[in-house]
Each structure stands twice: as structure tokens, then as C-alpha cells.
């Protein structure tokens, strides 16, 4: 159980790193258009 | 893609979901909602967070007053509906729904029938108004069957920040159960919700935003794009919108989950859709279900009750077409959206006709080859994807420019 949580946390940290490294922040959401 | 937000709101009001501002806000909301587990303080705290968020998506005092009026009017009509249900004429809900739809069309397009459109003279600018109107409409129509009603619950329902600007279109009864402390999601771990938020961020900020450079949205009239690049740009539209919209939903569903609320799902692998009906069952599910429950089903029931049996089938088919038109016009009252609705309505009717009359007449081997076999299913999924992606041109480019792009895709000039 603990090992699974640890691995899940590690995977989450990797995802956050991916976002921080590869984020292209020049765009807004389509959904911000006036729907 | 910045234009929609920029035109709707003034610069100081923009709140982006990838900003530290939003992350700090969401963190504060989650912490407070988890610490205040029950009671009125929790509901008032939620209202405060909702109002703070709403500020960034409402432009000017008139729009803010209009929003307050919407909440109060919804509550008033709901009370009327619940208390006088037996005495109100049967046509009341129908007239109410038509009035709400007309009101929405007028708000969204102040230039629509300017002489009779009050919002031509006093425009209302609220991002997510289409979703707000649907929440109001559901409350008004169903008020008599809700377990309890209250102004605070209603205000929090209409302004609930995870669903405010773009859904999912949650139903009042689900929200109320959570709001009134009757149905909290008790996750033993926060990790699944955090993964959901991270997935949404990867979809939107990493994939969609980096792929945007290849999309047809970068095309300008007169640009000499090569045909393959144009195909790539056009077909990328649906993938981009999926990554963008479902990414947004993932982030908001994750945040709501951290607040112990289970928001409804909005997507179910739409790339697997084998026809348009299947597509709309997998894409923006909360919108499709709302239109099904509050437009299509009542229409169908009326047809089945009042129309002779022989004439029912064409009218039901027409109801499919009409429903699709409404879904398209809900996004915007432009010729582009209208044409998008006509294309999807016709495709929906065609898939119904094929299902009812066409496939059944085929021999077993032909059915296996053209309908049930794996290659046929993959081909149908690819065709559906291409059709939806191509028709999405009408959203952004309008009719004339979309036709120019479509002609160029096939080598024309």
C-alpha cells in the first residue's frame, strides 16, 4: 500500500515537472470564449 | 485564442487557470472547504469563494446586477413553480423554457434583432452565461421535485466556481446533496484528484498549447499554406478542442473532488465515436444530456401523445434535427454555428435512417463487412472524426472563409 502511494506521488511529481518544463502559457482556454 | 476573453472583459479582470493567482485561490478554497466540514459557515465560505471568482468573469456593474437579478428571479420562479404547480397552466414550463432560450440568444448576440433586443442597448458581458442560464432553467423547471430549496444553495449552485465558466452542467439535486452536507465524497487519498488536475494541466498547457502552432487557427486569408499542412491544421481542431476542454474539465473536476464534491463527467473517449449520435453521447456529455432531458424527450413525448402513429416517425426525425440545431446555436447565434448545426443535424438524421432502415436490410456477410467488422468500425470512427473536425471550421472562420479553406484542402484556389 505504502509503496503504491509512494509511486503514485512520484508519478504526480513527474507530471508537475512536465507541466512546469513544457508549459506554453501564451494561450487561453477555448472555453474562455463567450459561451 | 485570446480574443474571446479580451473582448468580453477588461484587462485587469483576467484570471487564467495556469496563473499562480488561480492556484492560490483554488488551494485556499480547498483548504477552507475541507476544514469547515459542515454547517452554515462552510456554505457562506463557499459563497465568498464563488463571488471572488465570479468577479473576474463579469464585466461592469450592469452585468453584475443582471447576474444578481438572475439568481433572485430563478429563486422567485422556482418558488412559484413549487407552490402553485397545480394551479399554473400546463403551458407555463414550455413558455418559460422558450423565454429563457430567447433571452440567452439576445444576451449572447446584442446585434440579434436589435430593435426588440434589450441587450442591444444594455449589453451583458458574463463569461459562461450559457451555462448559467441552463442552471437557472433547470432549477425553475424542476423546483417542485427538489428535496429542499434555498436562496443560498441556489446562489452557490449557479455561481459554483468549478462549473461557472464552462460546465460541466451539474444538476441541482446532486449539488444540493453535497451543499447540504448529505453526500460528501470521502476519498482516503488526495492523490487521484491531484492526478486528475495534473492530467488536465498536461492536456491543456503542454499538449494543446504547443500543438496550437500547427492548427488552422494560425491561418490568415491569403496565407499560402501547402495542402497537407492545411489538412493537418483542420484535422487538428477536434484534438485541440478536446485537449483544451477536457483539460479544463479535469482541472475543475479534480478541484471539486478535493472539496469532496463529485462533479459529473463531460467526456468519454470521443475519438471512438462511430457516428454523430455516438459522438454527442461522448462529447460534452452534460450538455447533450441536458438538451436530451429538457428539449428532446419532452418534444418526443408530445409527438408520441398527440400525433397519429403514421406521422410520428418523420416528426421524431425532425426533433433530432431541431435538437442538433439548438445545440449548435447555444454555442453562438452566427451563420457559422447555424451551418454547423445543419451539418450535424443532417448527419444525425442520416445515422438514424441508416440504423433503422439501412443496416437491417443488409445480408449477414455484408453487415459483418460494413457494420460490425473491426475495419468498418475504425473507418467509421475516422470518418466521424474528420467530419466533426472539418465542420468545426464554421465556428471560428464563419461560412465564407471556411468554404475557402475547404476548397483549398481539395486543391482549389
Specify Rg of chain A, calculated over alpha carbons.
16 Å
Write down how many β-strands of chain B occur, each being a DSSP E stretch of 2 or more residues.
0
Uncertain regions of chain A: pLDDT < 50 for 5+ in a row? none
Report the mean per-residue pLDDT of chain B as an integer: 91
Query: How does the helix and strand content of chain B classify structurally?
Result: mainly alpha
Largest interface: A-B, 23 and 41 residues
How many domains of chain B? 3
Shape annotation of chain B:
globular
Percent of residues in helices of chain B comes to over 70%
Series of secondary-structure elements of chain B, N-terminal to C-terminal = HHHHHHHHHHHHHHHHHHH
The biggest sheet of chain A, with number of strands, parallel, antiparallel or mixed sense and barrel status, is: none
Separation of the first and last Cα atoms of chain A? 44 Å
Assembly type of the chains comes to heterodimer
SSE class of chain A = mainly alpha
| Total strands of chain A | 0
Topology:
The complex is a heterodimer of chains A (35) and B (413).
Chain A: H1 2-22
Chain B: H1 3-8, H2 20-35, H3 40-55, H4 60-83, H5 92-108, H6 118-121, H7 129-142, H8 151-159, H9 161-164, H10 172-179, H11 191-211, H12 227-258, H13 276-282, H14 285-306, H15 309-331, H16 335-358, H17 364-372, H18 374-391, H19 393-409
What brief labels describe this structure?
heterodimer; A: about 35 residues; mainly alpha; 1 helix; about 0% strand; B: about 425 residues; 19 helices; disordered N terminus
